[in-house]
Design a protein that fits this description.
Protein name: Cytochrome c
Oligomer: single chain
Largest sheet: none
Order of helices and strands: HHHHHH
Number of helices: 6
Keywords: Electron transport, Heme, Iron, Metal-binding, Signal, Transport
CATH superfamily: Cytochrome c-like domain
Pfam family, one: Cytochrom_C
GO molecular function, one term: heme binding
Number of domains: 1
Structural class: mainly alpha
Shape: globular
Organism: Rhizobium mongolense
Helix content: 40-55%
CATH class: Mainly Alpha
Distance between the termini: 52 Å
CATH topology: Cytochrome Bc1 Complex, Chain D, domain 2
CATH architecture: Orthogonal Bundle
Number of strands: 0
Strand content: under 5%
């Protein structure tokens, strides 16, 4: 009986660890995904391009990067409480126009969840030091 409980406990621990790793992305693979974004965005600098800089985007309110002219929809979303965290970025990257109706971003989105996880891992490297 104790053997079965131990076996179940070990199995749960192993599967839990595997689940955590499945959610994490690969920053190196994310750099490749970012090639689709870098025509309009920078991540390693705080410089706006056609799109706002993504340097420090995680934790930032939507539509709030200084010096960038956002759509009214994006600034309104930020004022209404949209903050870029992992969940909101996943939704936005999957389908930007569905997440923020009226966004100026023309990109159709990333359909592969692994690409999104990898891109988020890449962007996490460029968080501003507070």
């Amino acid at each position: 009986m104790n053997y079965h409980i131990l076996l179940i406990g070990v199995s749960v621990a192993i599967f839990s660890a595997c689940g955590v790793n499945a959610q994490e992305g690969d920053a190196n693979a994310g750099a490749t995904v970012f090639n689709k974004c870098k025509i309009c965005h920078s991540a390693d600098t705080d410089q706006n391009k056609v799109g706002p800089s993504l340097n420090g985007v995680i934790g930032r309110a939507a539509g709030s990067h200084p010096g960038f002219s956002y759509s009214k929809a994006m600034t309104d979303a930020g004022k209404a409480g949209l903050k870029w965290d992992e969940a909101s970025l996943r939704d936005y990257l999957h389908n930007p126009k569905a997440k923020v109706k009226g966004t100026k971003m023309a990109f159709a989105g990333l359909k592969d969840d692994a690409d999104i996880a990898n891109l988020l891992a890449y962007l996490e490297q460029f968080q501003k030091k507070q």
